[in-house]
Design goal:
The protein contains 7 helices and 14 strands. The protein is α+β, with helices and mostly antiparallel strands. The strands form 3 sheets. It has a 5-stranded antiparallel sheet, with helices on one face. The chain starts with a strand and ends with a helix.
Length: 484
């Protein structure tokens, strides 16, 4: 069984969900227990949570908790959450715990205990109505973008497996559809773990649990809102109950929520279908590539096998040849020794005859060498003559090439001199014009300056005349004053 399942000994509160598959719903029974802690006056002294849990378990005997865990721990209190087998036990256990006290070892004060029914976290109608009303990216006219899809997590895989399937560890979409058809007509269901390409399409989605396909997540979409509503109402505060063929019962706490990701909207389904098609093409290409690589490997292995066989045959052939050659060399040595003996006798017979012929051959050789020397000298002279004619022709070509180069250089020099002469004339003309301009400007400035000096002289002359008249008047006035 999956990690989130537990054995169930009491099925009296079971509610039918899908009896042919052995699936039922059972109310979740949880209570909260709060233990008030005393003030710790001595430093270093602590309270054992384990001891508190054991005291609580002892107080409810003969009843037991299916699970008991600490949900919050502070200096003032410890809050625990305990799950019970039946919801009918909640009132009984609350009466046993509410207002009671416990005493811990090492503490003189007693600890007060309070108990109450725990609230089950589950979405309400107000939650999905407000979410889809306020979500701007949702269109309530389209499936998957309105409250019609339930998202399940931690569903045990074996409970939803088909009886006709060979693998009992994989859930079946048809079984999932039939389980929830009782609430209303199903439009679409999706179990991501059944899609081998889903992990690559949506890397963040969880298709397995703890390395094994023990639990799975799924999406169930209803055609009508009323089906979604009935399913959510029926699942609120419930856990799944499974009774197998061996009459053994198990329960599982499953996470249930309304879908907020538009997982079963037409757009998302189409997108996943396109991505799956692309991945299938890629997988096909990879398979073809692997097939080619495998064929290439097999071909190479076959070539290596043939090569090895050929090498072995060649090795055997060489070994045989070596033996044959060895035998052949032995026979050749024997034949050689026999021929050497015959040759020795023949040489002795011919030695005298060879001495006679040696003198005649020497005379013939001397005459032949003289003839060859004459032919060699004649050929040498002919080659020297040809080389001389060739050198003369090359020398003549070099002289003609030098003359052409000199003519080209002379022409280029003449053009350069002509160009330089023209540039010199242009520069001289430009300098003459600049000089004329300078002289003309100098004359104009001189005339202007002379006119200004003449005008200033006239102004000064006028000032002198005015000053002279004033001085005469001053002298006349002085003389009159003196006379008086």
């Amino acid at each position: 069984m999956a990690g989130n399942t537990a054995a169930c000994s009491d099925t009296s509160e079971a509610i039918d969900l899908f009896k042919p598959q052995g699936l039922y719903l059972k109310p979740i029974a949880k209570i909260n227990v709060c233990v008030q802690l005393p003030a710790l006056k001595e430093p270093g002294k602590t309270i054992s949570n384990w001891e508190v849990m054991e005291k609580i378990k002892h107080m409810i005997k003969p009843h037991v908790f299916l699970s008991l865990k600490i949900v919050k721990s502070t200096l003032e209190f410890i809050r625990l959450e305990g799950e019970l087998e039946n919801k009918s036990l909640i009132k009984t256990l609350m009466q046993r715990l509410e207002g009671k006290t416990i005493k811990l070892s090492g503490f003189s004060e007693t600890l007060k205990v309070k108990a109450g029914e725990a609230k089950i976290s589950f979405p309400l109608k107000h939650d999905w109505d407000s979410y889809f009303r306020d979500a701007k990216h949702m269109n309530e006219m389209k499936p998957g973008e309105r409250p019609d899809t339930i998202h399940f997590k931690d569903l045990p895989s074996r409970w939803f497996a088909s009886y006709h399937s060979k693998t009992k560890d994989k859930p079946c979409e048809m079984v999932l559809r039939r389980v929830f058809e009782g609430f209303g007509e199903i439009r679409c269901v999706d179990i991501p773990m059944l899609d081998p390409y889903r992990k690559e399409i949506l890397p963040g989605i969880q298709t397995f649990s703890f390395g094994q396909d023990l639990t799975f997540e799924s999406y169930v979409q209803f055609k009508e809102y009323i089906g979604f509503m009935k399913a959510m109402d029926a699942l609120r505060g419930m856990k799944f109950l499974y009774i197998g063929e061996d009459e053994k019962a198990y329960t599982a706490n499953v996470k249930v929520d309304f879908d907020k990701s538009k997982h079963l909207s037409d757009k998302c389904i189409k997108k996943r279908r396109i991505e799956r098609w692309k991945l299938q093409l890629l997988e096909k290409e990879r398979e073809e590539k692997v097939k080619k690589e495998r064929e290439e490997t097999e071909r190479k292995q076959e070539e290596e096998r043939l090569k090895k066989e050929n090498d072995e045959r060649e090795k055997e052939r060489r070994r045989t040849e070596k033996i044959e050659k060895k035998e052949l060399r032995r026979k050749e040595r024997e034949e050689k020794r026999r021929l050497q003996r015959l040759e020795k006798r023949r040489l002795e017979d011919e030695k005298k005859y060879q001495i006679k012929l040696a003198l005649e051959e020497r005379k013939f050789l001397i005459a032949q060498r003289k003839l060859e020397s004459i032919r060699l000298l004649t050929e040498l002279f002919e080659r020297v003559k040809e080389e001389k004619v060739k050198e003369d022709l090359e020398k003549r070509e070099i002289e003609l090439e030098d003359e052409r180069k000199k003519q080209v250089e002379a022409e280029a020099l003449r053009k350069a001199e002509e160009k330089q002469r023209k540039e010199e004339q242009k520069r001289k003309r430009r300098m003459d014009l600049e000089h004329q301009e300078y002289e003309l400007r100098h004359k104009i400035l001189k005339n202007v300056k002379a006119k200004e000096e003449k005008k200033e002289e006239e102004v000064r002359e006028q000032l002198r005349k005015k000053l002279g008249k004033k001085k005469g008047k001053v002298k006349l006035k002085s003389a009159i004053v003196l006379r008086k």
